[in-house]
Amino acid sequence: MTTDQNGEEVSMLRAEIEMLMGERTSLLRTVGAAAVFVAHMDSKTLPEETYPSADVLAHALNALPEESLHDAIEMIRPEVDPSSGESND
What we know:
Helix content: over 70%
Structural class: mainly alpha
Order of helices and strands: HHH
Number of helices: 3
Mean pLDDT: 90
Strand content: under 5%
Low-confidence stretches: none
Distance between the termini: 47 Å
């Protein structure tokens, strides 16, 4: 394998990693928003037809590693908690 091929492979891997990191950030924001939504939702006012979806969401959130869920919530905290002292920009 030539140096040019190695450089091209490294460049492709770097681009793939950057894309995956962007997707991870997007997924963490989604998970964080879902977790905060579930935490603040009043299950007594939830329409019965939403029970199956709510159950799937709750189980999916509970199945996440604690560190990932914490990262997700911390990522969106400035946007949903004005008292966090951070900007909402």
